[in-house]
Amino acid sequence: MKSKKIILTGGGTGGSVTPLLALVPYFQTEGWEVIWIGTRTGVEKKIVSDAKLPFYAIASGKFRRYFSIKNFTDPILIIIGFFQSLFLLLKLRADVVMSAGGFVSVPVVWAAWCLRIPITIHQQDIRPGLANRLMSVCASVITVTFEKSLQDYKQKAVWVGNPVRPEFIKALESGLRKQTALPWLLILGGGTGSEALNELVLASLPTLTKQFYVIHITGNKISEKDFSSIYNYEPHSFLPAEKIAETMRQSTLVITRAGLGTLTELSFLSKPTIIMPLPHSHQVDNAAYFQKNEAAIVLSQTDCSVEKFIQTIISMTEDAALLEKLSLSINRLIKPEAEKQIFTIVHDLIRR
Predict the structure, then answer these.
(1) pLDDT given at position 129
(2) What share of the chain is helix, strand, coil (3-state, %, to 5)?
(3) Torsion of CA 203, 204, 210, 211, to 10 degrees
(4) Is residue 263 within 8 Å of 19, Cβ to Cβ?
(5) 84 close to 112: Cβ distance less than 8 angstroms
(6) Distances from the Cα of 304 to the Cαs of 71, 198, 212, 289, 310, in angstroms?
(7) What is the rounded CA–CA span in Å between residue 262 and residue 251?
(8) 271-305 per-position pLDDT tens digit
(9) Could you tell me which residues come within 8 angstroms of residue 288 by beta carbon, excluding any fewer than 6 positions away?
(10) C-alpha dihedral sign at 140, 144, 147, 153
């Protein structure tokens, strides 16, 4: 019997990559061949290469809702990406195409629709992104993280939750390693790092490192070598999923942006969390949802001083009842076992 072949597509940031990677073991266990189409320069190329998946790059543009000179050139890149996608899909003979967002996915999904290849889309965030809206008309099924999104995609939508990478499932099942004398504080700036959050953390280190062992995922915004000698401070520009999962499991408190991939993993591990969303983005909606459900403490990047940042961290970690409440609330917020449900949906779609 011919093995099934699935094309996963997305990139530009890690947000559209993480949920799809969580599904890869389920497809591979059933003997499916998994192939990725992404951008040449996005973070997905390294992430997918580390996962040892075949990777094909296409030209990628972006539709912007504001004035930019690139609005005149990017449509050309999207057209080029569309024809590259047509060629790749014909060459690879895909059985199904799946995306979780990212503008590189748009020409791939459009090409798949022209070739009558089944398409599924996963909507992670509270606010539907423009890329997913553009692709939704082509999709047979749209899986969503939150019940609210059923209203956005109507009859095509299925509420499943958000996939969790197997490294985090393994971390939950394994025992904790011996920790340092101080509680761990994990700070995540997103797949490409956050300059504003990094600056806030670095300014806070003289105080924080007296009470916490600080693990800081900086992205490529700063050089970890410049600060690696600071006592009780461990900076990394990037960590593989297994290491992040283990570190997150052992941390007393996590500070993060509001990407849904990370928030899902924090929910799965029941981690007390401080969210600092990227201003003027879909992350603000994600953070507001967690705050409304008392599942995290939210700080605004625009008015968070170093003093407020430090005081929030210290006061939270000294309040055992609050940590317990946040742990329980965040764990209940996202539906579990989305991986299995999405695999079943994709498998049934091919059999139609």
Answers:
(1) 87
(2) 50, 15, 35
(3) -160
(4) no
(5) no
(6) 34, 13, 20, 20, 10
(7) 14
(8) 999 999 999 888 999 999 999 999 999 999 999 99
(9) 126, 298
(10) negative
Note the pLDDT of residue 3.
80
Pairing mode of beta strands 33-38, 184-188:
unpaired
Q: How does pLDDT run across 117-164, given as a tens digit for each residue?
A: 999 999 999 999 889 999 999 999 999 999 999 999 999 999 999 999
Q: What is the pLDDT of residue 241?
A: 87
| Distance from chain centroid for Cα 21 | 10
Residues of the chain with pLDDT under 50: none
Residue 159 is predicted with a pLDDT of 97
User: What's this model's pTM, rounded to 2 decimal places?
Assistant: 0.89
DSSP E strand stretches across 141-242? 141-144, 157-159, 184-188, 213-217, 233-236
Alpha-carbon separation of residue 23 from 127, 154, 210, 281, 291 (angstroms): 22, 24, 40, 26, 28
Q: 11: how many CB neighbours lie within 10 A of its CB?
A: 32
Q: Do residues 157 and 186 lie in contact, with contact meaning Cβ atoms separated by under 8 Å?
A: no
Which amino acid, one-letter code, is at 9? T
List all residues 6 or more positions away from 248 whose beta carbon is below 8 Å from its beta carbon: 168, 171, 186, 254, 265, 266, 269, 271
Strand order in the sheet with 297-298: 233-236, 213-217, 184-188, 253-256, 273-275, 297-298
In this predicted structure, what is the pLDDT of residue 263? 96
Taking residue 130's Cβ as centre, other Cβ atoms within 10 Å add up to: 14
Tokens linked to 51: 């996962």
The reported pLDDT for the residue numbered 43 is 79
Distance CA 307, CA 203 (A): 10
> Which residue shows structure tokens 């904790």?
176
